[in-house]
């Protein structure tokens, strides 16, 4: 089911604790549904890894869809997967196949990928085009996420992400625009202004400090993001620019923060929902 720019999504990463060694501890699916309902979210995000864990725990697809339905939610977003170069394609293609099946189960609308670092640009374009083709068979839009993290992503800024999408030439392929990475990378407002709404395949929303709370990009992005309106990013201009571009994507509130994760799940949902609505209202008033 497609949501609109008026809607909010609570992604999986907003409900995880990140332990040393990059170990992610998520909350139970029921708690995420309760948090999203309490915060007035319309949609939920889920990763392939967590979906498999739920199935292994004994929950059927019918059970999971019932939890969503009872909370007034849809699962609109499938969370990111790494996109390798020629090496690792077999495992990657198997995972994409599983994501397609997962999308059909929930009627998801979009998902996104992160291009591995050190991959030949032509290979990145070719693989992204193949992913978009698979997604189109299942009604999915595919976003390529940019982040200025060497060793993690070869797509460091919005311009590079858009270049890959344009070269791939698929109508369902575009860019995942994450406010955290936009404000923490070599991006300009003119880059966002030049991005047509038809190329926006996802929007992730969080706030932060300038300069970063933690000098390390990785540490900051995984431990110190702030709820919208509680940091120093110009999120009002960010929203207005995306609206002017014609983006119709919902706002996925990806706040990864240690202090937030110390709160009960319902309180996390309420706070994120309230803060996001406040920013969206200011931007659109």
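Q: What amino acid sequence fits the structure above?
A:
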């Amino acid at each position: 089911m497609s949501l609109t720019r008026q809607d909010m999504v609570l992604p999986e990463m907003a409900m995880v604790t990140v332990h040393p060694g990059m170990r992610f501890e998520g909350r139970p699916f029921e708690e995420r549904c309760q948090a999203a309902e309490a915060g007035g979210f319309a949609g939920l995000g889920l990763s392939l890894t967590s979906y498999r864990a739920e199935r292994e725990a004994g929950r059927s697809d019918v059970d999971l869809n019932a939890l969503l339905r009872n909370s007034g939610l849809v699962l609109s977003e499938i969370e990111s997967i790494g996109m390798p170069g020629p090496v690792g394609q077999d495992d990657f293609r198997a995972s994409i196949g599983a994501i397609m099946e997962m999308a059909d189960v929930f009627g998801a609308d979009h998902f996104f990928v992160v291009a591995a670092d050190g991959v030949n640009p032509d290979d990145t374009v070719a693989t992204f085009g193949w992913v978009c083709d698979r997604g189109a068979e299942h009604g999915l839009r595919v976003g390529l996420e940019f982040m200025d993290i060497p060793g993690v992503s070869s797509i460091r800024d919005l311009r590079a992400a858009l270049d890959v999408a344009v070269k791939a030439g698929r109508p369902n392929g575009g860019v995942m625009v994450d406010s955290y990475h936009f404000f923490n990378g070599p991006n300009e407002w003119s880059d966002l202004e030049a991005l047509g709404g038809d190329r926006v395949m996802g929007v992730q929303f969080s706030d932060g400090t300038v300069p970063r709370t933690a000098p390390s990009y990785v540490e900051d992005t995984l431990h110190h993001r702030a709820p919208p309106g509680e940091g120093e990013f110009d999120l009002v201009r960010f929203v207005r620019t995306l609206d002017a571009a014609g983006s119709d994507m919902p706002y996925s509130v990806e706040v990864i923060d240690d202090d937030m994760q110390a709160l009960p799940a319902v309180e996390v949902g309420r706070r994120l929902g309230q803060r996001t609505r406040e920013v969206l209202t200011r931007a659109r008033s």
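Q: And what stands out in the fold?
A: The domain at 8-284 is CATH 3.20.20.150 (TIM Barrel).
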